[in-house]
Amino acid sequence: MVERSRNHLHLKFLLFMKKSLLISFLLLVVCFFANAQPEKVKIGVFVKSIYDVSMANGEFSTAFDLWFLHKKDSLNIEKNFEIANNKTFQVQSSSIEKVKDWNWISAKIVGKMQQDWITHNFPFDRQVLLIKLENTLYDTRQVVFEPDVAGSKLDKNFSLAGWQIQKFEIKHNPSKYETSYGDPSLSQESSEYSAVDVLIHIKRNSWGLFFKVFLGLYIALLISSLVFLVPAADLNSKFGLAIGGLFAAVGNKYIVDSSLPESNAFTLSDQIHALTFSFILLYILLSAVSHSIHNKGKEEVAKKLDRMLLWLAPLTYFLINVFLVWRA
Fold first, then answer.
1. How does pLDDT run across 33-70, given as a tens digit for each residue?
2. How confident is the model at residue 109 (pLDDT cuts 50, 70, 90)?
3. Helices (H), 2-112
4. Distance between CA atoms of 139 and 267, rounded to whole angstroms?
5. Banded pLDDT at 32 (limits 50, 70, 90)
6. Helices 206-225 and 268-295: crossing angle, nearest 10°?
């Protein structure tokens, strides 16, 4: 009887230990997964203005309100974020409040943003202005930004001179770096930090700028076209008109290029200028041909050639311009 009682107690003890170990294991698993979940931080913006848009300097300035919402008191998220594509920015004012279980941080920010401009179709271009808000201390294992899509907006009273605002959006877009910054807890030589992109899609009001930019170029081409009104015998006058138009066209290109960022792409502006240069050089060649025909005693043939080219050459130039602009 004593032996049976001991066995019974031993069995109960073993069952108790198994249950205890199982409960401990489950608690460890729960704690592990609870700790593995990153802290979620809601982030939103209200863009009040965009100004000083400069394509030549690759920048624009902006003023906006920024806010964070999170429940973990120790985060200090307001001290550990940056605008990744800023040239300069300043926090004009900020506040931190405890609202129920939430830490509510808000700030007013002004800054100058670095912008990569797309100039292929200038001045019929569309751009996407970017403000990239990035966490700088905690990687995505610890903190994840959640964009406040419903609360984030662009001020309806705001307008951007020379542009149409087409769309505003905010989305999560983590920043990935090919380095661990020496973090021994990372198994790979790379890291990822939570970030949010604020995107403002804009379209240029094109036609006014188009004629402002290229009117001088077209006048230079028309002046060069007057070579076909000059008698074929007067080659010097023909060449003088064409070369004068060429210098004016070159000057126009320098003015346009100074307002755009450097680019290896062959833009619409480059195409129109190259077309103009080609036609003026063609005018010089045709003037030499007309002069040669005249010197061979075929004055009437030279006159007919000049009269035909007087309307045919500018018309061809105009049609090619229409095609280039339409394609843009």
1. 445 578 889 999 999 999 999 998 999 999 999 999 99
2. very high
3. 2-36
4. 40
5. very low
6. 10
Quick check: helix, strand or coil at residue 261? coil
Fold equal for 38-204 and 207-327: no
Q: How confident is the model over 180-194, as pLDDT tens digits?
A: 676 676 667 778 889
CATH 3.30.450.190 matches 38-204: no
Q: What is the DSSP annotation of 159-204?
A: --TTEEEEEEEEEE--EEES--TT-TT-SSS-EEE-EEEEEEEEEE
Place of tokens 């138009």: 245
Q: Which long-range contacts (CB under 8 A, 24 or more apart) does 312-316 make?
A: 313/225, 313/228, 313/279, 313/282, 313/283, 313/286, 314/221, 314/222, 314/225
Report whether 97 contacts 39 (CB < 8 A): no
The edge-to-edge listing of strands for the beta sheet with 195-204 is 81-83, 126-135, 195-204, 163-172
The residue among 81 and 65 whose pLDDT is bigger is 65
Q: Residue 293: count other Cβ atoms within 10 Å of its Cβ.
A: 19
- What would the two tokens of residue 175 be? 């920043």
- Determine contact, residues 82/136, Cβ cutoff 8 Å: yes
173-181: average pLDDT: 80
CA gap 28, 22 in Å, rounded: 10
CATH superfamily of 207-327: Neurotransmitter-gated ion-channel transmembrane domain (1.20.58.390)
pLDDT number for residue 323: 95
**Cβ neighbours of 118 (radius 10 Å):** 16
For the chain, the domains span: 38-204, 207-327
| Widest distance between CA atoms in the chain | 144
Q: Is the pLDDT of residue 4 over 90?
A: no
Report residue 138 CA to chain centroid gap: 27
